Amino acid sequence: MVRKILFCATVDTHFSSFHLPYLQWFKQQGWEVHVAAAGNEILPYVDKKFNIPIGRSPFSRSNRGAYKELRSIIEENQYAIIHCHTPMGGVLSRLAARKSRRRGTKVIYTAHGFHFFKGAPLINWLIYYPVEKMLAHYTDCLITINKEDFTRAVKNRFKANMIEHVHGVGVNTDFYTPVKKIHKAKLREKYHYSDDAFLMFNAAEFNKNKNQKVLIKALALIKEQVPHARLLLAGEGPFFNECKHLSIELGVENMVDFLGYRNDIQALLNMSDIAVASSLREGLPVNVMEAMACSLPIVASDNRGHRELVVNDQNGWLVNNNPMEFSERITLLYKDKHLRSHFGKQGRKIILEKYDLSKVMEEKKKIYLNVMDEVEEEQWVSH
């Protein structure tokens, strides 16, 4: 009988953005691959796709219906493994799989950054910490993607059968790779930027956490010293218009390009000079890893996920999340081309050593194979 695995997350774009290599790997092993998430995206390597109305907020009314649907899907399909991602996808699928687990289904949960972390608001600790600790009882393998989360889960004795640490979802360093000056110049010509423009790139959803406003405020502080600066903001979201209005208010609307949703991130990185990241909270940010793979120096807010990737004075700087500190570090990089080059090379070296897709694939495969072995053992014992 063909083994089945269910991947579950809040939205299906989570899989198209980060997990296609892992869906493909299961297909190559002869497994039937199912996905449950909100959205109508057609995903490769998937045999069955369920559009489930999972809401991002724990208080979303749609989650009750999503839970019932998930429970029904799990009961009907008798999965050998369920791998859940994202906070609400992880909550609902682990609750829905409790009965199935008693019959031998193995449940894996990847925490892409716990909402409770050092310095997190008290409300996050009150809501998310007890939920995650309780749900660990229904988790066969808890995968964390940064050291802080791994250490907390181990020290606080989360009751998952296994707690593992992997280096994120991996970056394809053959695709995200630096380019020569002549290619960079051609890209700038294609996108209508001059050679003397100082391009700062950020790709993120426009929301409160990603905090692009601080980057726009920093730009306003350097507009005299760095007159050719351009801030390239790729993404969409609820704070998009607010950020546009702020750029007008601060008189930098001609220095900020709001690019919207993009599928040419690699080209945008390759024509840029530096990458900037201003999130309040991160697990292990793919946008920063992709920038480092393209040999861009990084100026990033000091948070848990950025600390995993950015080493001060080695591949960039971590700064307190305020416009003044961002502006000071950006200006230093603008003035020193050799420092930009040095930081960029070191950043790519860090990615190649730990975060390359092939290396993360090996980490994940080892976990999957261990779980598969457990499934086989339990099947053998039950027979």
Q: Can you lay out the helices and strands and say which pair or pack?
A:
Elements: E1 4-11, H1 13-18, H2 20-28, E2 32-38, E3 48-51, H3 62-77, E4 81-85, H4 87-96, H5 98-102, E5 106-111, H6 122-135, E6 141-144, H7 147-155, E7 162-165, H8 181-190, E8 198-203, H9 213-222, E9 229-234, H10 240-249, E10 256-260, H11 265-270, E11 274-277, H12 286-293, E12 298-301, H13 304-309, E13 316-319, H14 323-335, H15 337-355, H16 357-382
Parallel strand pairs: 1-2, 1-4, 2-3, 4-5, 5-6, 6-7, 8-9, 8-11, 9-10, 11-12, 12-13
The overall strand count is 13
Helix content: 40-55%
Determine the strand fraction and express it as a percent band: 15-25%
What is the SS-derived class? alpha/beta
Q: Terminal Cα separation, in Å?
A: 15 Å
The poorly predicted ranges are: none
Strand arrangement in the largest pleated sheet: 3-2-1-4-5-6-7
Give the integer mean of the pLDDT values: 96
Helix segment tally: 16
Instruction: Give the topology string: H per helix, E per strand.
Output: EHHEEHEHHEHEHEHEHEHEHEHEHEHHH
| Cα-atom radius of gyration | 22 Å
User: Outline, from the CA principal axes?
Assistant: elongated
Biggest sheet architecture: 7 strands, parallel
How would you briefly describe this protein structure?
This protein has 383 residues and is an alpha/beta fold. It is built from 16 helices and 13 strands. It is elongated, with a radius of gyration of 22 Å.
Question: How would you describe this protein?
Answer:
The chain is of the alpha/beta class and 383 residues long. 46% of the residues lie in helices and 17% in strands. The chain contains 16 helices and 13 strands. Strands 3-2-1-4-5-6-7 form a seven-stranded parallel sheet, with helices on both faces. It has a six-stranded parallel sheet with strand order 10-9-8-11-12-13, with helices on both faces. Helix 13 (304-309) links the parallel strand 12 (298-301) and strand 13 (316-319). Helix 3 packs across helix 4 (87-96) and helix 9 (213-222) packs across helix 14. The chain is elongated and about 65 Å long. The model has no long low-confidence stretch (mean pLDDT 96).
